[in-house]
Amino acid sequence: MSLTAILIALIAIGIPAGMIAGYFLRKSWAIREAQSVEAKAQGLIAEAKNKQKELLLEAQEKSLKIIEEAKREEQTRRSELAHMQSRLEGREQTFDQKLIELEQKEKVTTEKQAQFEHLKEEVKKIRVEQMDRLEKISELTREQAKETVMQRTENEMKDELTHRIRKLQAESQEDLEREAKVMLSGVIQRVASSHAVETTTTVLQLPNDELKGRIIGREGRNIKALEQLTGVEIIVDDTPEAIVISGFSPIRRHLAKRALDKLITDGRIHPGRIEEAVEQAKKELAIDIKKAGEEAAYEAGVAGLDPKLIQILGRLKYRTSYGQNVLRHSIEVALLAGMLAQEMGANVAYAKKGGLLHDIGKAVDHEVQGAHTTIGYEIMKKFGLPEEVAYIAIAHHEDSPHTLEGSIVKSADAVSGARPGARKDTYEQYVQRLEELEKVATGFEGVDKAFAIQAGREIRVFVTPEKVDDNAALKLAQDIARKIEAELKYPGEIRVIVIREKRIVEYAR
After folding, report:
1. Which DSSP helix (H) or strand (E) runs through 342?
2. What distance in Å separates the CA atoms of residue 410 and residue 191, rounded to the nearest whole number?
3. Domain boundaries of the chain, sorted by first residue
């Protein structure tokens, strides 16, 4: 046999033998593994049973503790409920007791109220009986007796009340006057402006009377041309070396005066030259007006005004009021108002600006209809000034301005106009003002005579003592003062004095 055949035979025998041997080995290994797993499983089961016992014991212990705690809480709650129940029972007993007491008090109160009503009715009856007795005894009714008592009380208290009123008025008036005088005197001294201000004139002085004929010209052509170009009336009369320029507008009067000055200086007077002189005078007057407005704003310390508004302000240089130059007056009012505003804690800028422009309406009141206060207000609003400043144009002529700055400017306006020599009246205006003042005073009942003195700064009123007593005299003075304020126009203030004098004359023979 060959080696190959032997090998094949061995392989053929060995493979089945190996398989059989492997099977038995695998089976024995599987038996050992199964026994090992079973042992582990039994160990795990035993361990799990031990743990289960331990958990059961712990659970039993915890449940016992919970039960014990629940029992303790239940016992505590029961004790609290028992305590609360006992308290509620006690309160209920107390409430019942108080309710019983309240019912008893209500019963007593009802009884007392009934007694009170009964006593009240008895008092009323007694009062009526007493009043009837008093009326029979006094022979007066209740209303008559009341009137008599009131009249006696009024008569007894009248003198005392009058004395107290006068005393209070005197004290308050003295205090206010003292403080006002101190403040105003300091402010006036700081301003220290001139009292005698320049007034606009309409009289033109000539070097000689020969110029009158040259101004009139042949057949009046020169004077006609001049009047037509300037809008004024030129009066040539017998006044030596003078002619009068008459016109409604002060600007036009000054324009004519300037043009005539140029013509007289030049010596050539004819219609062509008159037209040139008038045009040149217009330009110079416009420059002068603007310069006057700028200087006024600078002197018053007011900045930020529109150039056109400054031009209107400069026109006040040629405007007078009671002989007082309005531009100088406006500058003075602005300075006074600024100082007063600083003393009183008001808006200084508003007071100065309002004081400078308070009479701005007078610059155009010859050309625009309406009061100068309304015109001034509209001009200031047109140029974008604040309402507080524009209102001052109206406030300085109101009885009671509703702004502090308006009251300050009104006071400054009165101070400026009331200075000695600041303003003047013509004789006719002066007499008319005094007559109107006396007429207002004599228009009241009980007034015997009235005299305006101190250039119209004071009026003394004599009353009939039988018609006007002391109380009525006090009221009469106040009524006269109010009527003067409402009906008359005057600078400064007017003092009203009511004099009640009763003279009894008897002769011993």
Report:
1. helix 326-344
2. 17
3. 58-142, 197-300, 321-424, 427-500
pLDDT tens per residue, range 436-483: 889 998 999 889 899 988 778 889 999 988 888 888 888 888 899 888
For the sheet containing 242-246, what is the strand order?
203-205, 242-246, 233-235
Name the amino acid, one letter, at 393: A
Domain 427-500 belongs to what architecture? 2-Layer Sandwich (3.30)
DSSP 270: S
Instruction: At 20, list the tokens.
Output: 């059989």
Question: In the predicted model, is pLDDT for residue 495 greater than 50?
Answer: yes
Q: What is d(CA 307, CA 286) in angstroms, rounded to the nearest whole number?
A: 13
Backbone angles phi, psi at 268, to 5 degrees: -95, 115
CA atoms within 13 A on the CB side of 487: 14
Q: What is the pLDDT of residues 148-200, one digit of tens each?
A: 767 777 666 666 666 666 666 666 666 655 565 555 555 554 554 544 444 44
Class in CATH terms, 321-424: mainly alpha
Calculate Rg over the CA atoms of the chain.
58
Is the domain covering 197-300 a CATH 3.30.1370.10 domain?
yes
Length in residues, the chain: 509
Tell me the C-alpha to C-alpha distance, in Å, between residue 502 and each of 166, 174, 464, 472, 496: 20, 28, 8, 15, 20
